Amino acid sequence: MRATIMFGAGDVRIENIPDPHIIEPTDAVVVVSRACICGSDLWPYKGQEEFPETGRRMGHEAIGIVEAVGSEVRTMKAGDLVVMPFAFSDGSCIFCKQGQHTSCIHGGFFGIYGNDGAQAEALRVPQADGTLFVLPIGKDDRLMPSLLTLSDVMGTGHHAAVTAKVRPGTKVAVVGDGAVGLCGVIAAKRLGAEQIIILGRHADRIALAKEFGATNVVSERGDEAIERVRQLTGGYGVHSVLECVGLEQSMLTAISIARPGGAVGRVGVPQNEMMPGSLPAFYNNISVSGGPAPVRAYIDELLPDILEGRIEPGKVFDRTVDLDGVPDGYRAMDQRQSIKVMVEP
Amino acid sequence: MRATIMFGAGDVRIENIPDPHIIEPTDAVVVVSRACICGSDLWPYKGQEEFPETGRRMGHEAIGIVEAVGSEVRTMKAGDLVVMPFAFSDGSCIFCKQGQHTSCIHGGFFGIYGNDGAQAEALRVPQADGTLFVLPIGKDDRLMPSLLTLSDVMGTGHHAAVTAKVRPGTKVAVVGDGAVGLCGVIAAKRLGAEQIIILGRHADRIALAKEFGATNVVSERGDEAIERVRQLTGGYGVHSVLECVGLEQSMLTAISIARPGGAVGRVGVPQNEMMPGSLPAFYNNISVSGGPAPVRAYIDELLPDILEGRIEPGKVFDRTVDLDGVPDGYRAMDQRQSIKVMVEP
Hints:
The first copy, chain A, is an alpha/beta fold and about 350 residues long. Chain A contains 12 helices and 18 strands.
């Protein structure tokens, strides 16, 4: 079968590799219906991570059809349509039970450490019972793009909002206008935020942010952005900040625009060992939480809103490619010509 | 009257200065019955802060007798015995109303920025109604030392436990065996912690930690301490960490011993702009909260436990001095010959 392999910075190729098969009795093999390219795929694409010599399988978000299951898999069968979170998890360990699936003791992440990737015709899914969620629809459903976001960006935006303690009536800022930030806007509105300020500067993304519920746009950066958010919030800053970038500057901005006692929920993968803003966070009693989103834990809560049309996170996809188009999809996202690329293998 | 002034690193003197008097109608003047020397007073003592040319008034914890009140003060009168939190606050602003008194819009801190200090015969207290808490006892009560800790260390230890999300049945670690860490042990036990691991290495303090409820002692440092805490917690780390030191190494240890989904509550004043451990905190979804404790907000909750003898935080005082003994008290705390020094002017 064909799959996406990244061999180095900017070097994405579609290669022929052996078909996936069941190895552990808890595995499933899934034929990919839809996958996508993630903002976090751009970190290795930019050369900021190391590569194994044989290249790295790419892709960690998918909807697909179960092709085969191991002997211990109980909750699905061949032919089921499933959504696949970006991390696999057994669903039964001490951390899964507390909703912390990305810390599962028997878990891991797709596309790294030798695990299969989803930008491919098919892949092996470990811990199938704990990981995959059987969808109650057909594979040609018009809701497919939105359901696909349950595998990462919608769940991740929701995690940012939850860890930033968004509650009804709160003032919220979203740092970053990528697909996760845009889903963060949806999540903040869904949780009842009164004011949602998006910090971003790309016209197409800002337009979508407004459609999703953003009430204000701040296109300035650094100190000017901080000043602008203060002006918009009576001088105090916001209750909740969703940090959806991961850079030092964006994190410092996030802490600086939170009001005393406020909360930053960060889901942008940090690029540094040291976190900036330790002193203002301390002196203002601002909590910093977040991390890899346990999106598996959130599907039950978010799915009905998608099925019933209350939220449409699938709108973040503004380009669709087949497998041959994946390298160009990376280029388009890297050059910000596309918000998020969907892959139909 | 006489008051403690610090002129530079290690240079603490008792000086004659003008008596305090009412300036604003919301002020009170308080004659100090008991004050103390704080671990945070040792930062300037070690030369890690800058000094105004005229020196700096020291002391921010006190119990005293109200001598005079401004025309707008309603909740106390001359002769009342009051406990004075280390920060003053109006009790009515947007942040005080949410229990964030250390961020009061009209508030401030004793002993800096020209505000009076409590290691003195008397001091002026701004925002008296919002700041001072009238105690229902006489000034010679045997509970005085414990009540004095409501002005800082007991409330601060409680804040660490609250922001570290200590709940009944949780496993807790306390980093630091100073007076705040020891009060953190009391707070963790009070909130129902099942296991309380104290990280410290001073025999006298460890003995007190055990008396307060610590179930385990880890005297190692760095990686060895992390390994030891993991051994004590089934390999996972603790749910809650109370960071009561503020150094880079102690903060990194705190993050490293929290289990996935855990929480660090930090009350040790950070000595660096950058926080270590940003990546492990992120990848394990560990929240980092805390800051200057809104101790005024906690008096209502903690006072009954002291009055009824359920907790005895006053045991952290192991030396009492008069004003002339204050310079020697600083030396004793700096050389770790004393846990915490009480001052009876």
